[in-house]
Amino acid sequence: MRKIQKIGVYFQMLILSAVVAGIYGVLHDQISYTFSEEYFTQFKFKQFGIPWAYEAPRLGAAYVGALATWWMGILVSIVLGFFGFMFHSPRQMVRSLSKSFLVVIVVALLTGFAGLALGYYQVNEQTVSQYIQWIRPGVSDPVQFVRVGFMHNASYLGGLTGLLSGIVYLVISKLRYNKLNLQYAQKTRVSA
Q: How far apart are CA 122 and CA 142, in angstroms?
């Protein structure tokens, strides 16, 4: 029965993680839109083929964010979900997976911000010419465009490092759980 419940948890987490990742993408791209509208109007809207976004660019940026990230949530959930099966009960599986997804989100967010900070450190009026291949035609503020490019590239790296961090979190959680159970079993034997 527990195996069936765990399988149910696994599939529920797939759906939930896709929704959460989509929301993350919406918020991420609202932040990056604030730094460079042109990253979307001159690049992302064309890349995603959404001409209506020019009429409502903030909404368009949100849509791009959701499209760019929902699938990453599923990939992350597929991997973390398999690690979730090592927990004894469905309740422990839900609790541990939820916390591991939070780890992924925090790591991805911090990595994206680190990318933006690196962009601010690396890119200015004097150095922007080194990134000319990144800049799309018609961009009037290439410095901000490239800085946001740093943020977006770092965010994908953040998804991967977040996934690895989530796996580490799950393994450590399982080891702690096993240690606590062993200590409890030993105390119970001693007192009996």
A: 13
Biggest CA-to-CA distance, the chain? 79
Distances (CA, A) of 4 to 41, 143, 174: 47, 53, 20
Number of neighbouring beta carbons within 10 Å of residue 53: 21
- Host H or E run for residue 132: none
Find, among 72, 104, 101, 107, the residue nearest to 9 by Cα. Answer: 101
The residues, any chain, with a CB within 8 Å of residue 142's CB and separated by 6 or more, are 128, 131, 135
For 114, phi then psi, to 5°, come to -65, -40
DSSP state string for 76-133: HHHHHHHHHTTSSSHHHHHHHHHHHHHHHHHHHHHHHHHHHHHHHHH-STTTGGGGGG
51-89 pLDDT, tens digit per residue, is: 999 999 999 999 999 999 999 999 999 999 999 999 989
SS (H, E, C) 11-79: HHHHHHHHHHHHHHHHHHHHHHHHHCCHHHHHHHHHHCCCHHHHCCHHHHHHHHHHHHHHHHHHHHHHH
Question: Could you tell me the pTM of the whole model?
Answer: 0.87
